[in-house]
Amino acid sequence: MISGFLAPVHVVMPMIIPIWIFFMEFETVDRDLRRRVKNCAWEMTMESGIVVTTLLFSRHEIEDSPLRSSPIIRVIMEEGVPI
After folding, report:
1. What distance in Å separates the CA atoms of residue 43 and residue 38, rounded to the nearest whole number?
2. What is d(CA 57, CA 5) in angstroms, rounded to the nearest whole number?
3. 38, part of any domain
4. What is the total count of domains within the chain?
């Protein structure tokens, strides 16, 4: 993992139920990596009772695409907790 942030969804939008977003940047992202990370998030959700969701992106997607201007990505990187 190159970088990562953890942010409660209320940082991005007000919510009634607790939801946490793990934003992770990797050198490359493939189907197997997405599956493994989503399985971990599912296990965390089941154990904690807090909905855990993930956003996985490659370095290329963050640096060289319009995604770098996405409001949700900007807010998470500014207000989330680095992991």
Report:
1. 9
2. 12
3. yes
4. 1
